[in-house]
Amino acid sequence: MPKLDSSVEHVVNKVVDPIGVSQIRYFAKKFSQIPGIIKMTLGEPDFNVPEHVKQAAIESIKENDSHYSEQAGIIGLRKAIANYLNVRFDLDYDPESEIVVTIGATEAVYATFAAMINPGDKVIIPTPTFALYIPIIKVLGGIPVQVDTTADGFRLTGKKLSEVIKREGEDKVKAVLINYPGNPTGFVYSKEQLEEIVDVVKDKEMFVISDEIYAELTYGKKHLSFAKLLPGKTVLINGLSKSHAMTGYRIGYIAGPEGFVKNALKMHAFMVTAPSNPAQYAAQEALENGIDDASEMRVVYQERRDYIVGKLNDLGYDTLLPEGAFYTFSKIPAKFGLSSVEFCTRLAEEAKLGVTPGMAFGEGGEGYFRMSYASSMEDIKEAMSRLEKFTKSLQ
């Protein structure tokens, strides 16, 4: 095994080197090593990919679809995405020039920021949120401006956004990122709440990046895309990982105005050339003939959500009812005197229950923990039993 030569050990990107690994992944891996643990850490659907979707991938391989696709993705998939966005969310995108198929929503996020940010530019990130955004902005030379939303029920208000833009400098702020339904909170913005944000940014030289990967997983309300309210300044990010349980297929996409998408496509092409053909044909099948595949999952997730939120609140962990996604985000009682890492580590080691510390979701997450209810009801009930015993031991 080669050892890094001392002459090159300091030849390193000085921004990347000090950035830690994903804390979500770190704790998931750490806790997974505990024998007998119930894992409620990762946002991994416990459903299988629909059979008709798997078959499309198989047929692609059989038909020798083994050559490079167009860099923006196969046109059939881009047309399917455009149609899906129109049918589901009343959005109008040209599949030829306004949609790019990416390697999951993760690459969509990177390509979007890379096409937008110059060194010193600022991006507003409401927290707690999926913390991937923050290191990407730093690597690209931008400045992530974290805004704690816990006092406002996990939403970015128009008033708060306006205050932050004024404080940071209107000439420096180039974008605000919103993630809804929210990870880790499950928060879903109403039309009125989104319009507050629109009113603030519509006349400013800044984008809205709207990560809507959980759009199909809302409970009791229909998802309203930010792109419907401000299409000319919105970059929409979505994918099939959550809606069709296709996390391993790695298909996401960017949709936005052509003037922006052309540069996002350049960055995408520099990084990955093109997505995998079998995965693209599977995604096309999912959107053409499986547009309602998520409906069964929604019913099951909602049943789990109702059960777990009731139990958490009964045990003294203040938890808002998530209106989307498949996570709960609960307050750790102050009387325990434990940080989120201390609480979750003890819960894993003493009760064999793995959850994610709130600190993994940015500055607004400390003092909370996230549980994924993308697990069987059997595991959820056992998890609540273990949490109850652990809670009593702390009291």
Automatic annotation (TrEMBL):
Enzyme Commission designation: 2.6.1.-
Domain Aminotransferase class I/classII large: 37-387
Class of enzymatic activity (EC top level): transferase
Transmembrane segments: none
Molecular function terms from GO: transaminase activity
UniProt KW keywords: Aminotransferase, Pyridoxal phosphate, Transferase
Xref: Pfam families: Aminotran_1_2
UniProt xrefs under SUPFAM superfamilies: PLP-dependent transferases (SSF53383)
Cofactors: pyridoxal 5'-phosphate
The family this protein is said to belong to: Belongs to the class-I pyridoxal-phosphate-dependent aminotransferase family.
Protein name: Aminotransferase
Species whose genome carries this gene: Companilactobacillus keshanensis
